[in-house]
Design brief:
alpha+beta, TIM Barrel, three-stranded antiparallel beta sheet, two-stranded parallel sheet
């Protein structure tokens, strides 16, 4: 659950120390609020005015920093920085391209045979998804599946894989059976 929260920074403390102190305080307070529960928090911190001059910009930048905190493990926080924004823009761009790829059927399946070592016979095949972008760049699954998992796009992509793998398998079965009838 992501809970946006704006906390005033103490004027007596240096900005970074204050953000760190508030973050640690919030983790302890949240864990006390739910005794007996496992509590892990990840925070993104954006500072006024260096990270934004209005509340909307500050919340967006804090969210970008929180996304980075998620990659650093439990009970972590990150201060927003400009390079994080570049990362967020790149991620957003790829996410939009993935959505379009689903709409425009830009995925392909390749099949890797599974062989029974004792008999040498093929016993099945593993479907491997690839993304053929409009500029003809073939993207391996490892480069887009993690983002698809994070954004929830893995569900429609998985449905696409199952639908197409089953359809192709059925076509193969028909082709093989038609040779014997």
């Amino acid at each position: 659950m992501n809970l946006p929260c704006c906390l005033p920074i103490s004027r007596r403390l240096r900005i970074r120390e204050s953000g760190t102190a508030y973050s640690q305080y919030a983790v302890r307070a949240l864990c006390r609020r739910f005794p007996g529960s496992v509590c892990h928090c990840k925070y993104g911190i954006a500072l006024y005015p260096s990270d934004g001059k209005d509340i909307d910009t500050l919340l967006i930048n804090a969210d970008v920093a929180m996304y980075q905190a998620k990659h650093h493990g439990r009970n972590n926080y990150q201060f927003f920085s400009a390079p994080m924004n570049n990362f967020a823009v790149k991620r957003f761009t790829i996410e939009n391209k993935l959505r379009k790829a689903l709409d425009h059927n830009e995925f392909m399946l390749f099949y890797q045979p599974q062989i029974d070592i004792s008999t040498g016979r093929m016993i099945g095949a593993e479907a491997l998804i690839r993304w053929l972008q409009p500029d003809l760049v073939l993207v391996k699954a490892g480069e887009f599946i993690p983002l698809a998992e994070e954004t929830g796009l893995i569900i429609p992509i998985g449905e696409w894989v199952l639908r197409n793998a089953c359809s192709e398998s059925k076509a193969w079965q028909k082709a093989v059976l038609s040779r014997f009838w």
